[in-house]
Amino acid sequence: MKLSKKILTIVFTLVLAVALVGCGSQEKPKAAEEGKKDAATDKLKVAFIYVGPVGDGGYSYAHDLGRQYLVKEMPDIETTIVESVPEGADSERVLTELAEKGNKIIFATSFGYMDPVIKVAQKYPDVKFLHCSGYKTADNVGTYFGRMYQARYLSGIVAGKTTKTNTIGYVAAFPIPEVVRGINAFTQGVRSVNPNAKVNVVWTNTWYDPAAEKEAGKSLLETGADVVAQHQDTPGPQQAAEEKGKFGIGYNSDMSKMAPKAVLTSAVWNWGPYYVNTVKAIKEGTWKSDQYWGPISDNIVDLAPFGPMVPEDVKQLVETKKQELIEGKFDVFDGPVKDQTGKERVAAGQKMSDADMLSFDWFVEGVEGTIPK
Fold it and tell me: ABC transporter substrate-binding protein PnrA-like domain: which residues (predicted)?
């Protein structure tokens, strides 16, 4: 009986020792994991809010490609995204939450976020806010955009050379200066190679509504358009063109994968280098609030590769005009420029100012349609 007790005592001691060793081995990974978390919290936190889903294949997708480029180039930062944030009050809530969670840089990527950004920025002076396509700034708020109208002009050349009916459709988003400027630039490009062509405009008042945007494209095709351009975030108009055996000009990102038989090219964004340069400047303490409006020479805007249906002579023409834009030999709205009534708005030898381009509220000659108030 005593021997049994001794044996039990020895066994119990061994089991206890093993248990203690086991507990020790569990504590080490836990400590290591805590160390990883501590290291992660030391990373600069950068947030992005998108008006649509990343999977839209368009605007928000292009911004997220830029974010991914940023992460690749600067692995010492931590990024957060919030998708499908409506413009207005809800965006104010999201911006506030992102600031409260320790994000020191917040990129708000849609025009309608402008006033909420300004309001929230006042409460968080140590956070830098970058607002895309807006015009209001503060000490800790800057704006950024690219001269997409230059890429629009180039895509208009392709459309003007492609159309056989001399009727080109344009599915427009909201009647704001950015969209009006894009329509005008596209039309300037069309008519630079085809003065007889006209551009018909249909408004959807959407950024992301695949069904509505596709239907708008169909309506333009049914009234004689054989090329369709767009300003929304979905490939709906391009898909409508493909179903009708017609052609289209995509936007935001290369839309050829979604409608390979229709897409001639796409006017595209390349946000990555801007995001890297901006975050580096903030980290280094050299950033100052400004209104960045990058030209095609900065590569922030460009054209996607041409579809196989685009002839070589058209590709060469576009490349020649692109180089002239890059070299500053001309710009899209250099005079003479007339409005759709035939009235001269920019005289020959004159250049339209940035302020006038940023407040566009009239259509150029060749546009068929009106701008809703």
Answer: 44-326
